[in-house]
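Subject: Interface between my chains keeps coming out wrong

I've been trying for a while to get a sensible model of this assembly. When I model each chain on its own everything looks fine, but I need the whole thing in one frame so I can look at the contacts. Pasting all components below, labels as-is. Any help appreciated, I'm running out of ideas.
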Amino acid sequence: MSQYDPIRERVRAGGLVILDGGIGTEILRRDLTWSDHQVLDRPDAIRGLHEDYITAGADVITTNSFQLAHRSILGHFRDEAHMHHIGVPGLDTRAAEMLAASVELADEARKNVGGDRPIAIAGAVTTLEWCFRPDLAPTTDEMREEYREIAEVMKKAGADLILLETVNSVTEAKIGLEAVRQAGLPCWVGFVCDEQGVLFTGETLADAEMSLAPLQPDVVMVNCIPPDDATAGLRELVAARKGPCGLYPHIGRFDPPEWYFTDEYPPPRLLEEAVRWKKMGATVIGGCCGTTPEHIAALTQGLREL
Amino acid sequence: MTAYHRIRELLQSGPGVLLDGAMGSELVRRGVRWRGHGLRTDPEQVGALHEEYIAAGADVIRTNTFQLNDRIYLNVFRNPDHRRHIGAPGLETRARDLTHKAVEIARAARDGAGKDVAIAGVMAPLEHCYRPDLTPDAAAARAEHREIAAWFAAAGVDLLLLESMNNIPESRAAAEAAVATGLPVWVSFVMGPEGEILSGEPLEEGASEMTGLGVEALLVNCAPPDDAGLGVEKLRKGTTLPVGAFAQVGKFDPPSWKFEFHPRFSRSDDWPPERYVEKTRAWRGAGARIIGGCCGTDPSYTRALRKVM
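Reply #2:
Try treating it as a single job with all components included. I did that and got this:
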């Protein structure tokens, strides 16, 4: 029996579920570099930030695995031969090892501070190529194979569900979702959208719902966009979808390769927005880049009181 | 131009030209968090490293600008509008601003040392240096390299060094743009495992093409020491211009998060300075007139090379 079971019941009954906040940006705020996920080098720091989100009240915590895939590593070389020629040893299996470690650290955090409350671990799996660039997407055959591999590793490592996040096209969402379902895991999907709530491919969230519904994602959301854009996305999503909807926006600005933190949305203001989102029909709410355990604590407390 | 006069003389006679060693990988090894090339957050560390290379005896120091261009601040967005919508303030001019800053830091290091070293403005492929398949079309490459070359010319460098160039068409576009500034230009190719340009094009062909464009020297870099000697021989077959090499030591340890080139190299213990210097004897024997160090090297390599050059 997975700790996700009671949470899934709550999701299906339309109850509130709190997702955690930013992971990569929280690594930066703790003075570590984001160029590496740090799951092997600084496990204590990663476990610690999961623990902080659990303590803040998150029901579902996400693994520190944003865009962590073999493709991301191989992409720094011309090809495999070049990687073996000038790369450090072990790169063939590094992504899989780090993915497994990301799940294990979340699990350790849950054991350490989770107590009796059910807390689910969502394996975070992102668009295979760059999240804001649907034009770079690999072929569907490559997608199928790579999502299958990632879902298998996540499942074996003990993820309760997979969160396909910052997905930028219906095609990639569908192929990712198929792979996760084939691996036998529940799946949530988060899309990135524009100010009108339209995907970067021009596809609508209604298109997405039509294509994904037969594969039964437990929750569909929008994420990694500013709060106002998330509001637009949520409006489209709620209009198109019968099942549970959610969102987790970013706050601050992308400052590649890092993040520009702003105080535009301190925890009380994010809560005000979240109260509005809940009234609009969102039942799963959390934070993306730039949000902190303090934001999640404010959401947990404020939304539960409604 | 006075600083480059001395370099031109060294190219013709004497022991040749000593290039400095790595900037990026050494800054990362020293704990600089790799963002904005460390130029905004750790300018004193960047300056200190230049000073160490000058003190170690380098004739030419290179600006900390490898793969610093607007694409690294644009490719991660959907398009320029999206960058304005969710990007941090100042991203539109970030590459230009950092390039100016990098030149300023190198000039300050030279002024402080009071030595007549030349400052090479480092230009590089517009896309990831190890991904020739991503190279932009010729018109885009020309326009963007022209802009970058102009930043360096305005900021005040003694020469332009096109580093880790991974294919002939972009090298041509970049070299033409660089030569048009009136500054002396050197072009260096990144080698693949087979001893060719990383694109698979022959080095001899790259050398001969560049020779017709008015560049002053040709080099190979960003390859293991064992490969560089072959590179020098091949360059010599394609040109009568001075040639050179600066190899990487250790292994490339890429970031797990997808992004632009991140200069993390490890295990450089395989190639201590003495062994590296020994290896360069063969390159010099094959006719190399310019020697330095690429990723993974540090000022101790420059010092060791100075002793034999």
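Reply #3:
Confirming on my end. The first strand of chain B starts at residue 17 and ends at 18.
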